[in-house]
Design brief:
Distance between the termini: 71 Å
Oligomer: single chain
CATH topology of the largest domain: Rossmann fold
CATH class of the largest domain: Alpha Beta
Strand content: 5-15%
Order of helices and strands: EEEHEHEHEHHHHHHEHHHHEH
Structural class: alpha/beta
CATH superfamily of the largest domain: P-loop containing nucleotide triphosphate hydrolases
Number of domains: 2
Number of strands: 8
C-alpha cells in the first residue's frame, strides 16, 4: 500500500534496471582491395609494390587488357612484370569476341573466390569504371549473348549505320536510349540483343540488380589533384607507344581479316585512332593529337566516375608518400582481418 504524508501519496522506490549491451558480431566476410584510378596514374606500379609486401593476388579490371594481341596500346604489363606478379583476367579473349561487364563480374567473382580459398586477398586493379560498378553493384540477370543474333545486328549496323540502330532502340525503350550514347556501338547492340531475346525493355530488366559481392572492401583511388602532370604523362606514354610499335601492332590486327573497327577491342583509345590512320582517314600528326586528346578525355571520365565512390580513400600519385599511405591503409585493413598474415 502507498503511505500518505501530508495528504500526498508517495510511490514505492523503483528497482534499478539492468541494461545489457550486445556487441555486434564480427564481420566474417573475406577481404578484398580495389585499386582504381585514371589511365596513366601509376596503378600497376602501386599494385605490384603492394603485392611485394602483402599477401595479395592481382586481378585486372581493364576492358582492353582482356584481349590477346592488344599489348602496346593498352599499356599491358610487360612479360617480366607478369611473371613476378601475375594478373588474372588478362589475355582471356580474342579481339573478335566482345566481352561484357556482366561477364567480367562473373569472372572476377570466380577469381576472387579462388584467391580467398588460398588464404590470400584479391587486389583488383584497373581503370574501367563500368567493370568496378558491375562488381560492386551488380547487374540484372540478362540473357546470355546470342552469336547468331549478334551477327545479324552487326550486318544491320554495316548496312544502316549506328544512328539507325540507336533510333530503333529509342522506339523500343526510350529510357535505355537516353542512358546509352548514340556512339556506343557495344551497348547499343547489346541493348537490342537483350530486348529481342527477352521481349522486354532493357530498362525494365535492369531494375532488378544482383547482390553486391560478399566481401569487405578497401577502396583506394589513385587520383592526381593537379591534372597537368597527368596530361604530361599521357602525352609521353602515347608517344612511347607510337615509338614502341603501336602502328605495327594494329597493322597486324588488320591483316587478320576478321576484325573491324566497330569491335569493342578496336574501339579502345589509341587503337581506334591508329585504325583510322591506317584506313587513310587521319594523318600521322592527327593520329597523335587525337590519340592524346581521347586519352585525356578518358581520364576525365574515369575521375568523374570515381567521385561517386564516397567511401574510397583518395591518394595523389604526385605526392612522394602516396605508396606509403596506400601501404599504411592496407596494413590497417588487413590487420583487422583474422584470416590473413602480413609478412
Amino acid at each position: 500500500m502507498y503511505r500518505v504524508c501530508s495528504g500526498v501519496a508517495s510511490t514505492p522506490p523503483r528497482r534499478a534496471r539492468r541494461y545489457t549491451t550486445r556487441m555486434p558480431a564480427p564481420d566474417a566476410r573475406p577481404l578484398a582491395v580495389l585499386l582504381m584510378g585514371p589511365t596513366a596514374s601509376g596503378k600497376t606500379a602501386l599494385a605490384c609494390a603492394l603485392a611485394e609486401r602483402f599477401p595479395l593476388e592481382l586481378i585486372s579490371v581493364d576492358s582492353a587488357l582482356v584481349y590477346r594481341g592488344l599489348d602496346i596500346g593498352s599499356a599491358k604489363p610487360d612479360a617480366a612484370t607478369l611473371a613476378r606478379h601475375p594478373h588474372r583476367l588478362i589475355d582471356i579473349r580474342d579481339p573478335d569476341q566482345p566481352y561484357s561487364a556482366g561477364e567480367f563480374r562473373h569472372d572476377a567473382l570466380r577469381e576472387m573466390a579462388s584467391i580467398t580459398a588460398a588464404a590470400r586477398v584479391p587486389l583488383l586493379v584497373g581503370g574501367t569504371g563500368l567493370y568496378f560498378r558491375a562488381l560492386m553493384r551488380g547487374f540484372s540477370d540478362l540473357p546470355a549473348a546470342h552469336p547468331e543474333l549478334r551477327e545479324r545486328l552487326q550486318a544491320e549496323l554495316e548496312r544502316h549505320g549506328l544512328g539507325a540502330l540507336h533510333a530503333r532502340m529509342a522506339q523500343l525503350d526510350p529510357l535505355a536510349a537516353s542512358r546509352i550514347r548514340a556512339s556506343d556501338t557495344q551497348r547499343v547492340l547489346r541493348a537490342l540483343e537483350v530486348m529481342a531475346l527477352s521481349g522486354r525493355p532493357l530498362s525494365e530488366l535492369q531494375q532488378g540488380r544482383a547482390e553486391p559481392p560478399p566481401y569487405r572492401l578497401l577502396k583506394l583511388a589513385l587520383v592526381p589533384v593537379e591534372r597537368a602532370p597527368l596530361h604530361a604523362r599521357i602525352a609521353e606514354r602515347f608517344d612511347a607507344m607510337l615509338a614502341g610499335g603501336l602502328i605495327e601492332e594494329v597493322q597486324g590486327l588488320r591483316a587478320r581479316g576478321n576484325l573491324h573497327a566497330d569491335l569493342p577491342a578496336l574501339r579502345a583509345v589509341g587503337y581506334r585512332q591508329v585504325w583510322q590512320y591506317l584506313a587513310g582517314e587521319l594523318s600521322l600528326a592527327e593520329l597523335r593529337d587525337r590519340g592524346i586528346f581521347a586519352t585525356r578525355q578518358l581520364a576525365k571520365r574515369q575521375i568523374t566516375m570515381l567521385r561517386a565512390e564516397l567511401d574510397a580513400r583518395w591518394l595523389d600519385p604526385e605526392r612522394e608518400d602516396a605508396h606509403t599511405r596506400a601501404s599504411d591503409a592496407l596494413q590497417l585493413f588487413l590487420g583487422n582481418g583474422d584470416r590473413v598474415q602480413i609478412s
